[in-house]
Design goal:
Chain lengths: 306, 434
């Protein structure tokens, strides 16, 4: 009997009825439209980009295949290396701030009160603005010649600071602009997560006389940890792609202090007509985003497993 | 029922566009959009400013040529990204505005048409053009466009402040003839007016730095592109050009931290004595000087950059019409484009009211042009304006790099030798990988 059972079970497990197999293929048809779009719009361009990064050419044709020469040149290009540093600096300035401020706002505004609804709308409103409008507004704040901060400084008897013309302050100024612009998304994601935490847990904590801080540490944060990871990964991916703000506020200056990788890619590909070189820089950026996002994901997954 | 269907069919047919058998001429240009003010204006003489005059010329051309339908694509300055994308996707306009410094990039890739025969056909002879205008369109002995103008950076002067500073003699501004004189006059100006001598758009803006650097390098007979495929910026002349402006910056003899718009507004409200900006602002500042109120009221002059070193020369560039290559362009469309170029050429005087230098020597010598405000003072540019050698490609990104490194040196972010070495390395990296 001990050997007979597997013989009886095995055919059922490895060979589903013909009807079920047909239904399985039919189900696959539902994902086919998306799959086709994904391949056409993501996979193919990605593969073309990788191929372009091994060529020398412009928009009008490939002149030669150069293997890894573009990558060798990139890693010996001080301007590119500076843009890598600038991009990491910007990510460090913005991602933790966006995550923590977004979480803080969500915790404060996670209440059905009318004032909270109004504030949620106000904080999210900046997200719908275009980068052109956002940078225009913040240029008017930072301008040392009649800008908002300059007017306040002069009223206090201080000399206005040229935020966007100072290599030390320009990137923090762009980071502030970006945090103001992008804070809506993390706040909304955290709000959605907070509203999924079972009320019973808070009631039990209240019965145990748990304080606010203990409730936050022991109930709220563990309950929204997956959203926390999601927000960090989304923000890493988004902020690595910094482009519009420095393009419109500083043109990458002063002294290259705010030139990010995407601006380098744009200038190299479109202004210098070096499409292969620009594509190589794009591959490096892709790898950086992938590694950073995956590292965050792996670390968070291990913590969750423990 | 049949009648109803017929009626619906007729209504649908009436909704469709009317048959238009005119030849379509697609003109792509920068100079801004001003349709609200000039969209229907055909009186070219009544138009003002680059945008107004260009729009009026195109409107008038269309009105006088009823067999041609002009499609005007107005691009955000300078529009080369858009043009490059259009050419890569076989969507070439018939005519496009292009800086002389950029023509060689498109010509080298076979993206624009030679126009020697076309210009001859409409009676335009390059021999009658100024040297700068002819150089802008000539590559390897062939002509690749029709020059619109030549522009150069100028010294726009607030004469009211100059008078206060004691820098007016015989009704003319007192100008320096050496770097030492420039510093002395700027300090005198600052001491007597309490304002900086120069107004400059120096924040988020690099073009001005490049123009100043090239001009004072050329004035010392510097040749940064003696070999068009290799830049040479690590020279005493280049260091001197940066040192001069760093000295001005360090002594607070210029406005700092103003972007272009703020600098224009600042000059109009009297922030300083000399605004370093191009020919395109002559008309606007002249209009401000004719107003009854304002810092420039009754007190505006404009002159080419003074000669501070060995040679009287100013870096210049210019706008041109070029015809992108398009195998699908019909003979009628080609003909329409030539008719527009001939029309534009006949209205070259109207365009010269913008402040830009005319391209025809005869016009510069004409009493009509000389009678325009300040043109006598600017006529010398016909011989002193000099672009970079035509063999230098990628001048547009190179100008940005030169401006970035110059700005870093002048503001003190980098020592001058380091900035010049970086400038040379970055520019040569581009030229090496053409």
């Amino acid at each position: 009997m001990a050997t007979a059972l597997p013989q009886q079970v095995a055919p059922v497990a490895t060979h589903p009825p013909r009807g079920r197999r047909a239904a399985g293929w039919a189900n696959a048809l539902f994902v086919l439209p998306y799959l086709a779009m994904f391949v056409a719009m993501i996979v193919v361009p990605l593969a073309m980009g990788m191929w372009l990064s091994t060529t020398k050419g412009d928009l009008f044709g490939v002149e030669a295949h150069v293997g890894l020469a573009n990558f060798t040149r990139l890693f010996g290009d001080p301007i590119f290396l500076e843009t890598v540093g600038n991009t990491f600096y910007f990510v460090v300035l913005t991602v933790p701030a966006l995550t923590l401020i977004g979480l803080g706002l969500a915790l404060v505004l996670n209440t059905p009160a009318r004032w909270a609804t109004v504030l949620r709308t106000i904080f999210f409103a900046s997200t719908v603005l275009s980068v052109t409008v956002v940078t225009l507004v913040w240029r008017l704040v930072f301008l040392p010649d009649g800008g908002l901060l300059a007017v306040i400084s002069e009223a206090l008897g201080k000399t206005p600071i040229a935020f966007l013309n100072d290599p030390e302050l320009a990137m923090p100024a762009i980071a502030i602009t970006t945090i103001w612009w992008c804070i809506g998304l993390p706040m909304v994601l955290f709000l959605a997560a907070l509203q999924q935490v079972p009320r019973e847990l808070y009631e039990a904590a209240a019965l145990d006389n748990a304080g606010r801080w203990t409730t936050l540490r022991r109930i709220t944060l563990p309950a929204i940890s997956r959203t926390f990871v999601l927000v960090v990964i989304i923000e890493i991916i988004l902020q690595f792609q910094l482009f519009g703000q420095p393009q419109l506020m500083t043109l990458g200056g002063p002294n290259n202090a705010t030139r990010p990788i995407v601006l380098f890619i744009y200038e190299t590909g479109w202004r210098q007509w070096e499409l292969g070189y620009a594509a190589a820089a794009a591959q490096v950026l892709f790898a950086m985003i992938l590694v950073a996002a995956m590292a965050q994901y792996v670390v968070a997954s291990r913590k969750g497993a423990q | 029922m049949r009648a109803l269907v017929l009626l619906l069919a007729l209504l649908l047919a009436a909704c469709g566009p009317a048959e238009d058998d005119r030849t379509t001429l697609t003109i792509q240009r920068f100079f801004g959009a001003c349709e609200a003010e000039y969209g229907a204006v055909t009186d070219i003489a009544a138009a003002q400013g680059e945008c107004g005059i260009m729009t009026a010329i195109i409107n008038r051309f269309e009105a006088e040529n009823p067999d041609i339908r002009v499609v005007e694509n107005i691009v955000f300055w300078p529009g080369y990204d858009q043009l490059t994308a259009q050419l890569a996707s076989n969507d070439a306009p018939d005519l496009v505005t292009m800086h002389g410094s950029v023509i060689s990039d498109y010509q080298a890739r076979g993206l624009i048409e030679p126009m020697d025969a076309d210009l001859a056909k409409i009676g335009i002879a390059p021999a009658g053009m100024t040297e700068a205008a002819r150089a802008a369109i000539t590559i390897d002995g062939r002509v690749w466009g029709l020059p619109i103008d030549t522009w150069a950076p100028l010294w726009h002067i607030n004469m009211n402040l100059f008078r206060k500073a004691g820098l007016v003699r015989g009704g003319r501004p007192v100008l320096p003839s050496s770097p030492a004189e420039l510093i002395a006059q700027a300090e005198q100006f600052e001491a007597r007016t309490g304002k900086p001598y120069f107004v400059q758009g120096a924040a988020n803006e690099y073009a001005g730095f490049t123009r100043n650097f090239y001009t004072f390098l050329m004035q010392q007979n510097g040749e940064p592109f003696a070999d068009p495929r290799r830049a040479d910026f690590t020279t005493p002349e280049a260091a001197e050009a940066l040192r001069l402006f760093k000295d001005i910056y360090d002594r607070d003899l210029t406005t700092k931290n103003q972007d272009y718009s703020a600098a224009v507004a600042g000059f109009l409200k009297g922030d300083g004595g000399v605004f370093l900006v191009g020919t395109w602002m002559v008309g606007d500042f002249q209009a401000a000087s004719e107003a009854e109120e304002g810092a420039l009221s009754g007190g505006y002059a404009v002159v080419p950059y003074p000669q501070l070193y060995a040679r009287d020369v100013t870096f210049a560039d210019g706008h041109n019409w070029v015809m992108p290559a398009d195998p699908d362009r019909t003979a009628a469309e080609h003909e329409a484009a030539l008719r527009f170029l001939a029309f534009f050429s006949r209205h070259a005087f109207d365009w010269s009211r913008t402040g830009h230098l005319p391209v025809y020597k005869a016009m510069i010598d004409s009493p009509r042009w000389r009678a325009l405000p300040h043109r006598d003072a600017l006529a010398g540019l016909a011989t002193s304006a000099a672009p970079l050698p035509k063999g230098v490609r990628r001048q547009f990104p190179i100008e940005t790099i030169v401006g970035q490194e110059s700005a870093a040196a002048i503001s003190g972010a980098k020592p001058i030798p380091t900035a010049l070495a970086d400038m040379e390395r970055r520019v040569n990296d581009i030229l090496k990988n053409l």
